[in-house]
């Protein structure tokens, strides 16, 4: 899939907001499902990670305004930001396949 974003825009975004593996993978998952809400266990299962290891990542992405939380009596749900500019950028980045991402990340 082609993306209208430039390589530089994607690189800057990834460096600024998804500078670690967990953040990158969580944003790619949420970007592929921009209107879904996930509980912690669903995120962990989808990402192949332990729920306790996702806490820092969720907090980091919330602080950056990229992930929002919906609290209920018994559990929290997590979703992509409502900010349309960020949402658009994240969904476009998520549409890139791993080969395209690897090519971007290997460019100096």
The Rg value, from CA coordinates, equals 14 Å
Helix content: 55-70%
Major β-sheet strand ordering: 1-3-2
Spatial gap, N to C terminus:
23 Å
Number of domains: 1
Care to describe what's here?
The chain is mainly α and 108 residues long. It has one domain: Arc Repressor Mutant, subunit A. It is 59% helix and 11% strand. It contains six helices and three strands, in the order H-H-E-H-H-E-E-H-H. A hairpin with a 4-residue loop joins strand 2 and strand 3. The protein is globular. The two termini are 23 Å apart. This is MarR family protein.
Which labels suit this protein?
mainly alpha; Arc Repressor Mutant, subunit A; WH-like_DNA-bd_sf; MarR family protein; WH_DNA-bd_sf; globular; 3-stranded antiparallel beta sheet; 108 residues
In short:
The protein is mainly α.
Topology (SSEs and partners):
Layout: H1 7-17, H2 21-32, E1 38-39, H3 40-47, H4 51-63, E2 67-71, E3 76-80, H5 84-94, H6 98-106
């Amino acid at each position: 899939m082609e993306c209208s974003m430039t390589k530089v825009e994607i690189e800057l975004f990834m460096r600024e907001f998804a500078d670690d593996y967990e953040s990158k993978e969580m944003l790619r998952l949420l970007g592929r499902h921009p209107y879904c809400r996930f509980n912690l266990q669903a995120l962990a299962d989808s990402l192949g990670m332990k729920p306790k290891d996702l806490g820092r990542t969720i907090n980091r992405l919330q602080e950056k305004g990229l992930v929002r939380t919906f609290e209920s009596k018994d559990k929290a749900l997590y979703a992509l930001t409502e900010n349309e500019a960020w949402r658009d950028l994240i969904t476009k980045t998520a549409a890139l396949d791993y080969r395209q991402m690897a090519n971007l990340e290997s460019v100096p």
